[in-house]
Amino acid sequence: MSKLRRAAPLLPEEAGQDLPLLAVCAILTFLACLSVMGAAGAWRAASGWSGQLVSEITLQVLPGEETDGDAAAQDAGALASGLPGVISVEVRARAASEALLRPWLGSAQLPDDFPLPRLVTLEIDPQDPPAAGAVEALFADAPYRVIVDDNRLWAGAIARASGTVRFFAIGLVILMCAAAAAVIVFAARAALSMRREIAEALHLVGAPDRFIIALFQARFFMLGLKAGTVGSILALLAALLLGYAGGSAGALFFLPSLAPGWGVILVVPAAALLAGLISGLAARLTIRAGLRKRS
Predict the structure, then answer these.
(1) Which segments of the chain are extended strands (E)?
(2) 217: pLDDT confidence band, cut at 50, 70 and 90?
(3) Helix 267-294 crosses helix 155-194 at what angle (to 10 degrees)?
């Protein structure tokens, strides 16, 4: 019993010619995915920052020449705890202030008599915060100086910055998609020119234009799907590596991490499908326009 031979495709894949196009599309997908993941990480971090800023006030307690710094911080915390709108108070010791300076000063020990400010963190009710100037007035007669850092002043700036990053990333993704479509258009025109004999032969045997268009569309859809898968997986690995590096830097310099979260895994199938759809649609429109010119 003879074996049935599998029919060869009408548009066979050519690795030598498809590899450069595959590489270009994969690189564009890689850059687009990195933009999306970076914007997601920045948006996530900015939301966390804003949530902390609107609910915290930091006090810098500067002790006088004859005032113990830790005792002054404890007294400031006790006074602030009775202020309306303050939910809780955290008094930090001298070691916490030294840890904040360590990335810049190294492991050198400061003199014991150095007037290092103590930090007191007030958690406030965002819906009912203390009245304006109430915290400053509370320490007007204190034997030590208190600098009030109202972190809520930075919330608007962070929200605007994160919005700018998000819109910039969206614009970059649109630009990458347009570049990928342009590359596919040139590749589809070249493929039609190289396969002109096949298209004419199919016309002779009665194949309609839509059949020929479907052949090219399917081929470029699969090419875009492969390129999108490769590019998005590489972008995911790069994002995880950058997130790990950012987490290490945050541990050293007290910076929040820009890790986009595990939800970015969904970017891989979404980017692969979008790359395939863009490639298939661009090829379809290009081949249809080319066949109309020849007819």
Answers:
(1) 56-62, 86-91, 118-124, 145-150
(2) confident
(3) 40
Q: Percentage of the chain surpassing pLDDT 90?
A: 2
Please determine, for residue 18, whether its predicted confidence score (pLDDT) is greater than 80.
Answer: no
Q: Which amino acid is at 229?
A: T
Cβ neighbors of 5 (< 8 A, separation 6 or more) are none
- Please give the CATH topology (third level) of the domain spanning 51-155: Alpha-Beta Plaits (3.30.70)
Tokens standing for residue 224: 């875009």
**Torsion of Cα atoms, 135 then 140 then 144 then 147, to 10°:** 40
What average pLDDT does the segment 34-42 reach? Answer: 77
Phi-psi region of 145 (alpha: psi -120 to 50; beta: other; left: phi over 0): beta
Q: Is the pLDDT of residue 268 over 80?
A: yes
What distances in angstroms separate CA 228 from CA 24, 135, 172, 252, 265, one per listed residue? 10, 55, 16, 36, 14
Gyration radius of the chain over CA positions: 31
202 contact partners, CB below 8 Å, separation of at least 6: 10, 211, 212
pLDDT band at 233 (very low <50, low <70, confident <90, very high): very high
- Identify the residue whose tokens are 């234009």: 209
CB 212 within 8 A of CB 292: no
Per-domain boundaries in the chain: 15-48+160-294, 51-155
Tokens of residue 175, six digits: 């630009």
Q: How far apart are CA 39 and CA 46, in angstroms?
A: 10
Cβ–Cβ < 8 Å for 98, 116: yes
The reported pLDDT for the residue numbered 229 is: 92
Amino acid at 9: P
Tell me how far apart the alpha carbons of residues 163 and 196 are, in angstroms, rounded to a whole number: 49
Q: For 117-140, how does the pLDDT look when each residue is reduced to its tens digit (9 = 90+)? A: 888 888 888 778 887 778 888 888
